[in-house]
Specification:
Chain A: Residues 69-79 have a biased composition (Low complexity). The complex is a heterodimer of chains A (417) and B (464). Chain A has 417 residues and is of the alpha+beta class. Helices cover 46% and strands 9% of the residues of chain A. Chain A is globular and about 60 Å long. In chain B, strand 4 and strand 5 form a beta hairpin. Chain B is globular and about 65 Å long. Classes of the chains: A alpha+beta (417), B alpha/beta (464). The complex binds flavin-adenine dinucleotide and protoporphyrin IX containing FE.
Chain lengths: 417, 464
């Protein structure tokens, strides 16, 4: 193999369908300095750095950019750095600003203030899943991504934020455009895509700003209303902060969940005995989703970290201001941490994966994402009769960070009610 | 080798007795079985209940979120054992290898594990301690009785002692909207564990939640009414309080009386053992068949100058029990030292407090992240220019990093920048422990390695 640095090979599209052998190669050097990036791939080291207060998520602290560009690999928020009109959302901030905004956001999402929000969405999630599966024509070729995994999370985020039903289709449109910018098609004109992206972003921003105004006057039980009318010990959020937060929830919760569900179905179809077990026992979806987050994590690596000081780890020194990439997907298959790591095994007893990250930035939406995937996969298993893959491997999106199939063509004999 | 033959026989059909059937006892028994012990296992416990968990007793139970009978410890494996619950051990014959039980029976052992823990120190005046409405909190029965009285809606609760347990009880009372007075001899709550600087934060927290906190005072006497119910408490500053419930939270006494005269090195400070959990006899010679774990143990810790540490920490009980059980079944070269880095948690007044290392050995304190005023911070304790402990208030996710600094005897104050460093984190301040029990400094020890099983010590010379 003479395709240049390991990092470049990982980013190369031809390797998208199976980057795991390259990750195994990567783990041979737990801290690899290539193309001016410091790439960390072993479980213990990734976990350690996720909890290291000398590691910053605020890229303004980065003094040595990686010579290799993730370009289209990242979420559009990063691409727009500099020209963005919104302040950075909390995923790109360090404590104390990060903690303040995350805490504020959490007052309308999780314990102790809203311990039941996610749980109470269970019925609604089931209904959305049921509608989507009901709308599939089971007689021909099904694209699971377009017909199911993709529309599901956007609808969920609409309901969570409190986007009125009649506006959902407009919202879907903007989300589509934003997501498309994560997935450039070869040969497409990037300026056109960028223009469309900017426009969608502006329209979405204006739409949300209007909705926030409305909810300040007429608060409902939804998240936007609660965030717009916050008034607790931590104060409140400015409209700009609220807009960035809403955009973050949309972006962070969207492509990730799509891929978790699609990767899930792909993995199940490749492991039919597990699919069969899930059909008989929907409760298997709980450990199964955890194992999926280890085995095929939708976020493959966490880039955009930097160091506030020289850090010594695993015999290497990561200099201050470095561009640090934490490859959670490689860590999740570290044989020093997981027995037989390349085996998909939902019965694994110890599955503390890094699929949701760890430390103060660990996934905010994890309880919701888990529930979405559990319901989606157990319902697909129950309702699709004799489902099978039409293409293996399927065609992947170009994004190496938020990795997942662009389409998942499947067929089945029938769809149970 | 004959020793190997002995161990094999021990594993196959030996007799192991565990005295003290609580957290440490249960976890040890489970480890014995999972490590292949197939012989007779006898679990002696003076409480009538299956092993249960104590931390909820001062938290969820007092709030009515869980009931005392829902605190049974989860079982890791099905455990085949001869349970002697409700039966205290009353004596030990080391020569004959026999444990005497309260019912007169004697149980023979090849290996003995002692996990008798501690009990709450009662109010010193016996007559006053017997008044109706005076409680301690250590057991399920204590919690059941106290909870029942809290539900009745007392006019005022007096908590004597503002350590972790006392502070948690006060917190539960406030959450139930019960007026509460806390009397503490020291300058602030938690001052013994975390020092005066952090204690001041805890004091503010209590007052802000409506606790009538009296520091620098002692309760000099309790007074009952004609029916024998407590009605007043007198304080050393001349004032008095009129509670109808008094909770005495003055720390713990080691359960070692039953070993008096046995020849084992057991006393009021606990049972001394080596790093492999083997008990010392009174001559200072280590035994080879008697092991100790949990709150009752005192063991030398390489990270802390080989001082004997007694830890009343849940995590220590589990880890030490597992190590003791492992060592009970193997040859000396395969034994592991108990090198658990102390860690503790508490929740009170809506704040999650966690610590690692031994903060109370620290002389200096640096607020490395966050701020005391916001009550969200990481405090690092320094002793002789090295990091010896850390505490977090609502910042627990950073703790593994600081634990690593302690394990590697990193220099204090930490010289590097971190996220969330505030002006107050620019320099360290005296930690303000009331009675700095400063250990003598010796060589320091650095821990390294991947899993607890392959931790190896490397000696580095002392820094002074
Ligand atoms: C209210 C409360 C809150 C706590 N909260 C926390 C917390 O938040 N975090 C934390 O880290 N730790 C906490 N702890 C401490 C933690 O519970 C202890 O560290 C742990 O219980 C120690 O377990 P052990 O098995 O060593 O001892 P114990 O739990 O004390 O068990 C010893 C057992 O031995 C029995 N026994 C004693 N003598 C005899 C005898 N002669 N014969 C037979 N049996 C005997 C005792 O009755 C008891 O059942 C708390 C403790 C209490 C009481
Ligand atoms: C399977 C689905 C998901 C996966 C795999 C996933 C993964 C992750 C990961 C790895 C991070 C850490 C990023 C970092 O450390 O910089 C993260 C952060 C985050 N996620 Fe998720 N996520 C998923 C779904 C969701 C959903 C549904 C939401 C919203 C409802 C969400 C909201 C967030 C937010 C807000 C953050 C930033 C947290 C912070 O910086 O404190 N995620 N996610």
């Amino acid at each position: 193999m003479t395709q240049g640095s390991l990092l470049r090979q990982i980013l190369r599209y031809e390797n998208r369908h199976d980057p795991y052998p390259l990750y195994a190669e990567l783990r041979k050097t737990p801290v690899l300095n290539e193309d001016d990036a410091y790439v960390v791939s072993t479980y213990r080291e990734v976990l350690t750095l996720l909890h290291d207060p000398r590691v910053s998520s605020d890229t303004r602290n980065m003094t040595r950019s990686a010579g290799i560009d993730l370009q289209d690999q990242q979420d559009p928020q990063d691409q727009q750095e500099g020209e963005a009109t919104l302040p950075p959302s909390f995923i790109r901030l360090d404590p104390p600003e990060h903690d303040r905004l995350r805490r504020l956001t959490n007052t309308s999402f999780g314990p102790p203030h809203e311990p039941h929000r996610v749980h109470e969405m269970r019925g609604e999630l089931g209904a959305i899943v049921s509608d989507l599966i009901g709308g599939i024509d089971g007689t021909g070729r099904i694209d699971l991504v377009g017909q199911f995994s993709y529309p599901f999370p956007v609808t969920v985020i609409c309901r969570l934020l409190g986007v009125p039903r009649e506006d959902e289709s407009r919202f879907h449109g903007w989300a589509d455009t934003l997501a498309a910018s994560l997935d450039p098609m070869p040969g497409e004109d990037p300026t056109e895509r960028n223009r469309a992206f900017q426009q969608a972003r502006t329209e979405l921003g204006m739409y949300l700003a209007g909705l926030i105004e409305e909810r300040r006057r007429n608060p409902q039980k939804d998240m936007l209303s609660e965030l717009a009318t916050l008034n607790g010990p931590d104060g409140s959020m400015s409209t700009m902060e609220l807009l960035s937060t809403a955009a973050l929830l949309l972006v962070a919760g969207h492509e990730t969940t799509v891929n978790l569900i699609t990767n899930g179905m792909l993995t199940l179809l490749r492991n039919p005995q597990v699919l069969e077990r899930l059909r008989a026992d929907p409760d298997l979806s709980v450990p199964l989703v955890e194992e999926l987050l280890r085995f095929e994590p939708p976020v493959q690596l966490v880039p955009n970290r930097t160091t506030l000081a020289d850090i010594e780890i695993a015999g290497a020194t990561i200099p201050k201001g470095a561009s640090l990439w934490l490859v959670v997907a490689a860590a999740n298959r570290d044989p020093l941490r997981f027995e037989d790591p390349d085996r998909f095994d939902p019965d694994r007893e110890d599955v503390r994966h890094l699929g949701f990250g760890s430390g103060v930035h660990s996934c905010f939406g994890a309880p919701l994402a888990r529930l979405e995937a559990q319901i989606a996969l157990s319902e697909l298993a129950r309702r699709l009769v004799n489902p099978r893959l039409l293409e293996d491997p399927p065609e992947y999106r170009s994004n190496a960070v938020l990795r997942g199939p662009r389409h998942l063509p499947i067929a089945c004999d029938d769809i149970r009610p | 080798m004959p020793a190997d033959g002995y161990l094999e026989r021990l594993k196959r059909d030996g007799r192991i007795v565990v005295v003290g059937a609580s957290l440490a006892g249960l976890r040890a028994a489970e480890t014995l079985r999972t490590e292949g012990f197939a012989g007779t296992l006898t679990m002696v416990g003076d409480e009538p209940y299956e092993p249960y968990d104590r931390p909820p007793l001062s938290k969820g139970v007092l709030l009515g979120r869980t009931t005392p009978d829902h605190t049974a410890l989860p079982r890791r494996t099905a455990l085949e054992a001869d349970w002697r619950l409700g039966t205290a051990a009353t004596g030990l014959d080391m020569a004959a290898k026999r444990v005497r039980l309260a019912d007169g029976e004697e149980v023979e052992y090849d290996r003995l594990l002692i996990t008798t823990g501690v009990r709450a120190r009662p109010w010193p005046h016996e007559g006053e301690a017997g008044l109706d409405g005076v409680f301690v909190l250590r057991t399920r029965d204590d919690a059941t009785a106290l909870h029942k009285r809290l539900v009745d809606g007392p006019r005022r609760v007096l908590v004597i002692g503002a350590g972790f347990t006392g502070s948690e009880i006060a917190s539960a009372c406030r959450e139930r909207d019960i007026p509460v007075t806390v009397a503490e001899r020291g300058a602030a709550p938690l001052v013994g564990a975390l020092g005066g600087v952090v204690g001041a934060v805890a004091a503010e927290l209590q007052r802000e939640h409506g606790v009538d906190l009296r520091t620098g005072v002692m309760v000099t006497g309790l007074e009952g009414d004609s029916a024998g119910r407590v009605r007043a408490a007198h304080l050393s500053d001349g004032s008095s309080v009129e509670p109808d419930i008094v909770v005495v939270a003055l720390g713990a006494t080691r359960n070692t009386e039953w070993l008096a005269g046995s020849g084992l090195g057991a006393g009021p400070r606990g049972i001394a053992c080596d790093a492999g959990c083997r008990a010392f006899d009174i001559r200072g010679i280590v035994t080879d068949d008697i092991f100790v774990a949990g709150d009752v143990a005192r063991s030398p810790h390489p990270l802390f100058g080989y001082q004997f540490l007694s830890l009343e920490h849940w995590g220590n009980a589990v880890s030490q029990a597992e190590t003791a059980a492992h060592n009970m079944l193997c040859a000396s070269v395969d034994r592991r030292p108990h090198m658990w880095v102390p860690a503790f948690w508490s929740s009170q007044f809506g704040v999650n407090i966690k610590s690692v290392g031994v903060p109370s050995m620290g002389t200096e304190l640096l607020i490395s992240q966050g701020s005391l005023a916001e009550r969200r911070f990481v405090g690092v304790y320094g002793y002789q220019d090295r990091v010896i402990g850390a505490v977090t208030f609502d910042q627990a996710r950073w703790l593994p990093f600081y634990e690593h600094l302690i394990e590697t005897t990193a220099p204090f104050p930490p010289s590097f920048p971190t996220v969330d460093r505030r002006p107050e984190g620019a320099r360290s301040v005296p930690a303000e422990f009331p009675d700095p029990s400063v250990p003598t400094h010796g060589p320091t020890v650095t821990l390294s390695g991947y899993s607890p099983a392959d931790r190896r010590m490397t000696f580095t010379p002392g820094r002074h």
